Amino acid sequence: MSLTPAYPPARDLLKGQTVVVTAAAGTGIGYAVAKRAAEEGARVLISDFHERRLGEAADRIAEEVGCERPLTCLCDVTQQDQVEALRDAAITGLGHVDVLINNAGLGGEVPVVDMTDDQWHRVLDVTLNSVFRMTRAFLPHMQERKRGAIVNNASVLGWRAQKGQAHYAAAKAGVMAFTRCSAVEAAEFGVRINAVAPSIAMHAFLAKVTTDDLLAELSSREAFGRPAEVWEVANAMIFLASDLASYMTGEVLSVSSQRA
Q1: Which domains does the chain have, with CATH numbers?
Q2: Whole-angstrom Cα distance, residue 85 to residue 87?
């Protein structure tokens, strides 16, 4: 019997809602959650900084889901003017934004003693500062409407240690803390802010930048003996974005089968 569950059927969890997803090109978590949002009845805008891959992702979602093609907007989440342009494009194209998925992140393996300032700052800028920029840009719109949900992509490394990941782990721990604090501020306006913390989710880019030995080691730490499928992480994000999680805010939901 396979330990990998079947792909879940749609239940219209986000029917009639609008969703914006960052870093949604390629085949990773961003793409998976954008596709799941479309399957759950949402109108979707996807963003990334890679134009060709972004267009291909929108085409695949439309074809695989059988929905209207998601809107697209190029955005480098490290640039405030581009973040604001993304917000404006989303509000113009979708009418309003119900859900924001902050998925952008950047890793890399390097020991602390060898880490340059540029490596440190780049990872924190893409992984942590982008969540701040995006939230700052979109939250007033949600607060004015007295509704909305933001879901941030954190990591179990925000809690746990791994060699060579000090910059990434520090950034993800920051995402967790930012999630909790911003959620308290947003609650009085009826806006929920939560995060997921995956352990390892397999996709093409991860395979490209990670050695087979490390992937095998990380998978061996999982109780199921395998990495998550990206759609399994996306399911948790869709849950937090939906009304099923109406009493959850400031929470970091672990998406992991790690023993420890």
Answers
A1: 18-253 (3.40.50.720)
A2: 5
Tens of pLDDT, residues 155-198: 999 999 999 999 999 999 999 999 999 999 999 999 999 999 99
Catalytic residue numbers read 168
Helix crossing, 166-187 with 117-124: angle to 10°? 30
State both tokens at 225: 């003996």
- pLDDT by residue (tens digit) across 81-109? 999 999 999 999 999 999 999 999 999 99
Model pLDDT for residues 141-151, shown as the tens digit of each residue: 999 999 999 99
Question: pTM above 0.90?
Answer: yes
Q: What is the DSSP string of the chain?
A: --SSPPPPPP--TTTT-EEEESS-STTSHHHHHHHHHHHTT-EEEEEES-HHHHHHHHHHHHHHHTSPPPEEEE--TT-HHHHHHHHHHHHHHHSS-SEEEE---------GGG--HHHHHHHHIIIIIHHHHHHHHHHHHHHHHT-EEEEEE--GGGTS--TT-HHHHHHHHHHHHHHHHHHHHHHTTTEEEEEEEES-EE-HHHHHHS-HHHHHHHHHTBTTSSPEEHHHHHHHHHHHHSGGGTT--S-EEEE--B--
CA 72 to each of CA 29, 148, 149, 205, 234: distance values in angstroms, whole numbers, following the listed order: 17, 21, 20, 21, 19
Q: State the CB neighbour count (10 A cutoff) for residue 73.
A: 19
Residue bearing the bigger pLDDT, 209 or 6: 6
